Amino acid sequence: MESNVVALRPDATHLAMVRQFEQAEESTQSAREKAEKCRDYYDNKQLTADEEKKLTDRGQPPVVFNEIKPKVNTMTGLEKQTRKDPKAFPRNPGDEAAAHAATDVIRYVCEDSRWDDKRSQCAKELAIEGTCAVMVGVKQAKGAIDPDIRRISWDRYYYDPMSSEFDFSDAKFKGIVIWMDLDDAVRKHPDAKDILEATWAKARDAETYHDKPKHGMWADYKRKRVRLCEHYYDEGGWKFCIFTEGGYVVEPMDSPYLDEDKEPECPIHAVSLYIDRDNNRYGEVLAMISPQDEVNKRRSKALHLVSQRQIRVSHAVADDPAKVRKELSRPDGIFIGEAGEVEVLQTNDMAAGNLNLMQDAREHIHRTGANSSLGGKDVQNQSGRAIVAQQQGGMVESASYLDCIKTLSIAVYRSSWARVRQFWNAERWVRVTDNENNIRFVGVNRPITAIEMAQQKYGQDPQAQPLLQAFAQQPQAQEIVGIENNVVELDVDILVDEGIDTPTVAAEQFSELVSIMPSLVQLPPPYAKLLVQASSLRNKDTLLETIDQLSAPNPMAEQAQQVQMAGAQADVENKQADTAKKAAETEKTQVETLTGAYQAGHNIGAPNGAAAA
Predict the structure, then answer these.
(1) Could you tell me the pTM of the whole model?
(2) In 316-340, which positions are buried (b, 16+ CB within 10 angstroms) versus exposed (e)?
(3) Which of 273, 341, 458, 591 is at 20 to 30 A from 534, Cα to Cα?
(4) For the chain, first and last CA: distance in Å?
(5) Res. 82 pLDDT band, cuts 50 70 90
């Protein structure tokens, strides 16, 4: 079938980009073939068609003992167990509230893009194929532009083959291979219809970067599909274009994505676990393939030796070895001859040797990478503390693997924040906790009126309340005087918190608050406020206000205390009066008694002044 499409003449720059891609394809072909083999071994495809046929012909099942898959699953489980949340730290004094808002926004973006699931997929590709890639772009969401984290399959990511850094920081170009139906490509890029149709008309065979199933390099003629390259390249600044073999689908331009310094950046971030001296990138599985083959071959050989026997017979018993073998394989086989004319040769030592070598190969795989200690399997009646120590020791060999995932995560978080600063130019609200009983929202780019700013500054001062109420009636109180959490002006450092991951922000703050609560209760209010200010707690202003409220004088309490003190003082005075009265009465009684006794002794007051007897 001949095409009526006229072949186009791409310019020199486009031809150079096509050569770049084809060079990347050719240079990394060996590494990608090994990566495909690693994926097959993980998926239990470890025997070739010829090997399976041989096993079947000799009556032996083609059994595979996959030791690789549990190892990879342990590594991916380790990634999930040690998963960290991003956290923004202020670069300038007094920016703690802004840093908390940035943390909330980044976590919202990650949750909205389901980054945890995509990171787990990246972690699996990192362990198996050795390379994983992510693109941090944007998407339309309810009339707004939101950051979008998109995973790039390892076989759709291409890069500068001269790059030798594990994070591709020295790569001069990176790109994504995109297969599309011709009609969809024309619909999405109508201005490039002639170029796309010309590429499809020149469809030819390809060895790699194929559509699934394999049909062509730049196009699939039968299914009318074309291949596009979303290309990012560094020429003193990151550029962007989309091209196919026939020409540009999107003309070269500056990258539409800006970094934190507002310079064009490449939105593709990737890491590799291991790199050899030829810049071939590979993962943990490649080193396990050889011992895995040893396990399969040795077990198959041992099974064959155990299920079959070698014998020696005299000519008197049989002249046809095939008949002897047939009778020997039957449980009711019959040999006609004298004793000693049929001798079974012992092969138990060969079977035992194969089993020993198989066990040695299995132990070698178990010692490679993440070991069973990380899963707490080799406990052997150990204490909990000993198990934890064993798991920590097992993580030493996985340090490089975890560092790669951490590096990729930090790059994703920083690019996500850069997209927020670039595209969020209107007021936005994000939910920062999944606690239904304590739903909290954080506003960014929120206009603040003069009365709101005054209330934030003086709202806790009782003496300022009359002035605030009077100011609220003034027209200028509703004027916009600032922007709360202006993302363009927020300057923060984004890191991965080394603490244990918490399910919600509220749980994280509660855990930290509980740890310092005994000190807050025992310290005087000024020292308690100093402790809160020096901590990394969120919403410090609210906590400080609570401390002020708890330490502020309560008029009702003071009045009750004064009444109580007055009552106590009155009781004391009454008791003192009663005591004085009783003392006076006692003294009066004593005086009357003495006076009576004196009068009786001296006849004081007797008639005619007679003397006492």
Answers:
(1) 0.70
(2) ebbeeeeebeebbeeeeeeeeeeee
(3) 458
(4) 169
(5) confident
